[in-house]
Amino acid sequence: MSERELTCGIEIHQQLDTKKLFCDCESDLRDDGYGAYYRRLRPTASEMGEMDKAALVQFQKDVGFRYQCCEGCTCLADLDEEPPHSVNEDAMDTVLTFSMMLNGRMIDEIHFMRKMAIDGSNTTGYQRTAMIATDGSIEVKGKKIGISSVCLEEDSARKVEAAGNEVLYRLDRLGIPLIEVATAPDMETPEEVMEVALRLGAILRATKRVKRGIGTIREDINISIPRGARVEIKGAQELRLLPDYVRNEMERQKMLIRIKDILNERGTKPADIIPEDVTELFSKSSSKVIKGAIEDKGKVIAVRLPGFSGVLNGDGGKLRLGSEMAQYARTRGVKGIFHSDELPNYGIEKEYVDSLREYLKLSSEDAFVICAAKEKKALDALRVSVERANYAIEGVPQETRDPLPDGTTRYSRPLPGAARMYPETDVPPMLLTEERIRRIRENLPEFPEEIEKRLVSSYGINAQQANQIVRRSRDELFVKISEGSGMPAVAATILTNTYTELEHEELDPDSIGDAQLLGLFELLKANRFSKEALPSLLREMAKGSDAEAAVGKLGLEAVGSDEAAELIAAMVKEREEFIRSKGLDAIGPLMGPVMAALRGKIDGKQANELLAEAIKKLIG
């Protein structure tokens, strides 16, 4: 059996639409906050005396944190000034419901654990999480995908801004209940990753107790390839980008494996971190970065990288170890580094590159890296940069990476280990009773495929439309529009074809609130405009306008039949010769200009009837 090209699992974190997990505060996000409670966090050793590597790296950044409160959705429990309250029963019922829909094996006694997180996103320095079920599964396109665990946990605080060595968080999001569902590493293609995420998302939303919108659901992707390593891409939010993240990470690991092979063939050994102060050598450089650093009383520091030439940025840009090193360097507060494979460039002339190579006594296979900043920052940045370069001799490092809007990722921190988990002593264990399990099992919601069948049978839309509506969790909205307007066919077209067109234009149709969309259909039902105007109006609403403003801005107020008839009669008169030669066959060619002139102010059927009437009147 051939080796799998990709091994991938995902974790999905979905906010629940209940009050907070350990208090009675509302789980709403606010645009304003007050107060600024200052804290510093530090890692602690596990019960085995081990220190989590990711937590230690975060602590070494030497950052302090301020926390804003919000009226109605923060309390002393959020600030860690009092113990957590009882677990929210609605949240627990929801995660139990979801677990049963996956045929998971329930945990009969539920214990919360503390998961260390000292990036400031939790005031306590840890996140509370409890395993609810294990060993579930879903089916995607005929393939069984294992569900390793379903957990209930609390969401983290929202980062508002970062300046210098201080980060400001807002506590409105802290404590919102999350379902965390982790799959087995059963996915073998980038497309399969998206299909699994869509299926899990549809089941989550079928519970009717989850929040919707940007930021309410986040995916972590765990990826490895043969000879590579497990890498976690944390916090992806756009489903359409999941295949891109997976493909790009596969290519990145293949690139790093190739670099490893090149370095091993050369016999390259780990570079010693011996910093050299070369400020004087660059004192007259025209580079803006170097000049700025020196003027700010910083220094230019260089480190040798024997045997690394050509892999920092070589083979036409296909080898990019220098980019990996720069990402590590930026975690130490510098804007970046320079390395020999990319110089001369960035205002650093060839004479300086040659002088530095001579000063460092480098051969043709040797490289160097330099950093221009305050001395401590430059030394810290170079230390982690060289450590990253040295790891390339071994291969692909295990790490956590942040997703970027273009489908690529950047280094965030080392992959966390088990040393950051320890028991929660402030939340008592919870026994899962047979009565509770029976009550929930008897009231399980419809599965997505059952919802699709109901939409087809009750509203007359086709199966493909129903599938697309349910996959994107727009079924409740579809029902509301259809019941309110009596236009299920129009609603289905808008929520499928039109919304897809907007996404291709890089507009977010889901930014249009349900109330706004329902209001738009109320205006349509009141004949304020024709259904042909809906795409243009929705395009405007996706840019931030409300329904009324969009109608006014685009000048799409419906016209009366008399006014429309006058406009059409004038167009017919202008084209009299063409119409007399074609007769009623002129209706088809003229419908385009007529609808363009009326700009969606009457619907196509009415326009067709008025045009036919005007032509008949002309030709007699």
Short description:
This protein has 620 residues and is α+β, with helices and mostly antiparallel strands.
Description:
- The strands form 4 sheets. Strands 1, 4, 6, 7, 8, 11, 12, 13, 18, 19 and 20 form an 11-stranded mixed β-sheet that branches. A 4-stranded mixed β-sheet has the order 2-3-10-9, with no helix packed on it.
- Helices cover 39% and strands 20% of the residues.
- By secondary structure, it is α+β, with helices and mostly antiparallel strands.
- The protein folds into 4 domains: 7-263, no CATH class; 269-392, 2-Layer Sandwich (Gyrase A, domain 2), CATH 3.30.1360; 448-559, no CATH class; 561-619.
- The protein is built from 20 helices and 21 strands.
Rg over CA atoms = 30 Å
Number of strands: 21
Mean of all residue-level pLDDT scores: 90
Structural class, judged by helices and strands?
alpha+beta
Number of domains: 4
Molecular shape: globular
Low-confidence stretches: none
Termini, distance in Å?
79 Å
Main beta sheet: 11 strands, mixed
Oligomer: single chain
Q: Give the count of helical stretches.
A: 20
What is the helix content? 25-40%
Beta strand %: 15-25%
